[in-house]
Amino acid sequence: MKQSDSDGLIRPVSVVVLGLLETTGPQTSYELWRNVELSVSYFWQVAKSQLYAEPQRLERAGLVTADQEDSGRRRRTYAITGAGRDALIDWLGRPPEPAQYHDPAMLRLFFTDAAPRLATPLARQRVRELTETLQFLEQPGLGGDQPSHRRVLSWGRLTVRADLAFWQSVLDDLEDGA
């Protein structure tokens, strides 16, 4: 039973769950959360509550299966089904929706003429944060063995470098009195 995005079955959080189960294998909700934190969270934020609830919803729809431990913590480990794989591949084959970009720091910068004294601390904070993010993204071994993951990591590094260069130029201008 194949349903489309318009049916409301496949949502962005569904794609995250199905994609991780397909590319990294069966996982518990906690393992999914950790993998999101180490991978897609840099370009796609998912609320923890959504991520923990989504595998159960996908199980009811027949897109994943669950295996529950008989003892101990009784964790449920989820795996993608053939129908789940088909739904993921169907979604991957569709044209992407336009990107929506929200940058709270950029919004603040846009309005700092209302409080110019706040521009320099904002720029310093962004330079510091982006430097830390870039250091993390440039760790050896990050990105794994999958070509698509390495490509997205490359995009992330390039994007952070560009953002860092921008914010550093803003900081330099502000410190030079421009």
TrEMBL record:
Q: Which residues form the Transcription regulator PadR N-terminal domain?
A: 17-88
> Which top-rank group of organisms is this from?
Bacteria
Q: Which ranges form a coiled coil?
A: none
Which Pfam family is an annotated match for this chain, by its short name? PadR
UniProt protein name: PadR family transcriptional regulator
Give the organism's phylogenetic lineage.
Answer: Bacteria, Bacillati, Actinomycetota, Actinomycetes, Propionibacteriales
